[in-house]
User: Fold this.
Amino acid sequence: MAQNKAASLSNKQPSDYSAKHIQVLEGLEPVRKRPGMYIGSTDVVGLHESLREVIDNAVDEALAGFAKNVWVSLNQDGSATIVDDGRGIPVDIMPQFKKSALEIVMTKLHAGGKFGGSAYKVSGGLHGVGASVVNALSEKMWVEVKRNGKTYRQEYERGVPKTPVKEIQSSSSVFGIDSGTIATFFPDKKIFSTTTFDFDIVKKAIRERAYLIPGLYFHLYDNREEEKKEVNYYFEGGIVSLVEKLNENKYPLHSAIFIKKLEGDVEVEVSLQYNNGYSENVQSYVNVINTVNGGTHLTGFRMALTRAINDYGKKIGSFKNGEDSITGDDTKEGLSAVVFIKMPQDRIQFEGQTKGKLGNAEIQPLVAQIVKEGLSTYFEENPSEARKILEKVYLAAKARLAAKAAKEAILRKGALEGSSLPGKLADCQEKDPKISELYIVEGDSAGGSAKQGRDRKFQAILPIGGKILNTERARLDKIIEHEELKNLIIALGAGIGETVKFEKLRYHRIIIMTDADVDGEHIETLILTFFYRHLPEIVKQGYLYIAQPPLYKLQSGKEIKYAYSDDEKDSEMKMLNGQRKTAINVQRYKGLGEMNPEQLWETTMNPKNRILKQVNIGDAEEADAVFTMLMGDEVPPRKHFIQSNAKTAILDV
Assistant:
């Protein structure tokens, strides 16, 4: 591993954390009126954002150098408890308010040690307001603080104190800490559409933070079921461990590179490792916030990576002139990387409410300089591994040029035929992509029914013949040459690869419609792999859907009902049995071709009746691992998955 030798960022502050470190800006009245402004939404996403905010308050104590453990418990009564073994929130009196610092922190917006820079250098919480916002949006909440051998407690309802801050004899917590903070909150049912925490979402958030903060122990308990769950995370390797996890089952080409440097009050950590695959997986963070939309730190990293590889290639004679240089897109093939920035909270500029993109202009050249220096040093010290990286990106450049030539040939051919749209496509009359839909239908038979049954004003149909190319294992030039995928790319209109332009996408609702059998599900998986690996923005924007055709047709006399699941079939049969004496005829649909155009429209394509599943990437890391395991070259992980899940499979025999 290459590491720039610089002082590691130490956020450790003087341990006399007290009321003088707390600053106050305003009260909590706006939070309950407009909760979305503070946590993004009031659905399941906002619910878990609230939990993350309290967790990040505990994490901040670790970033500051005081906490070694964070415990998270999902309780049977619907509450969540978060515990850290840090210094504990100050409880002494703030003279200007004549109240305990704990009460001010919990009941005043923008009150905390993250403003003014004296208590925390960096933090991951929502601009330091997490505790008070969560308190305002909780039916009940209480906080216990252990400091100087004493325990203090205060209780709240919807952000309003119900007891004074008072010393108690013993803590209600089962975690035996000598100092730290214990917070328990009940999400308010009047605010949130759901108050049930999802164990997997919480686990992902905790695992993510465990990778970012090496040496910090995370303990997660789910006490809501009879079979209680427990997960513990601890990673000594930090983001190097995360990169190695991203490259699991992907044949890494070299050991993970690690670059770390402190420049002023900003610390940059980067780890990267190439594998023999064709897809890219790059994650970026600011403090402990996952910047899913990237930002200036990611741009600086990409610039430095391209420049460092080009400079080293020219130095050793691989690239003889500027025409042979690789581009930024060439460096993406098979790249797994993590870019992690730590900086003072009050300097961070996020673009958008959800903190998905870093906007600080000064971070881009800083990251670019540090990464360029680190990579240049690594290449000089590890020439054999540097050559492996050069070979990888050089092959990617050749594939890019081949794909460009193939694409131009396809477009020229289309122009000669008088139309650039594929002949199989039955396009819609609507030209506004926001209204237009494209059905990707398995087989010409179902495609014919769909073409006859559709609403041609806004629904386009593209039949896909048979099982398409597995794009998990294919370069872009092979994808463009594949007839079915070529037709799909041209129909979508946005292009692919380095020239993709999503503003030219012709449909904002792209619907995969396959048979409800094993072959249909395989084709569906192949199409999903194509979109996830090569047009991921379509998935991220929420434009990709899966149609849900009915599994059964139930007919009793002239009355016809459709059922989309076995449970729904049983329910409909009970209802029909209760109404009529006529025998019920049950038809199990095995393919879309068994339905006539009218039935296909009524059950699967009519916006008033149909059921669509929207495809999203809730956990990119998990999705990447699943696609690699199911569609990649490594057989043992796939075999293990099949053996582990065989008992739960529903066989249609």
